[in-house]
Amino acid sequence: MKILVTGAAGFIGAATCERLLARGDEVVGLDNLNDYYSVQLKRDRLARLLPQPGFRFVPLDVADRAGLAALFAAESFERVVHLAAQAGVRYSLQNPHAYADSNLIGFVNVLEGCRHHRVQHLSYASSSSVYGGNTQMPFAEHHAVDHPVSLYAATKKANELMAHTYSHLYGLPTTGLRFFTVYGPWGRPDMALFLFTKAILEGRPIDVFNHGDMRRDFTYIDDIVEGVVRVNDRAATPDTSLPPSSHGPGTSHAPYRIFNIGHHDPVPLLDFIGAIEQALGMTAQKNLLPMQPGDVPATYADVSALAAWVGFKPETAVHEGISRFVAWYRGYYKV
Question: Is the dihedral of CA 86, 88, 91, 92 positive or negative?
Answer without folding.
Answer: positive
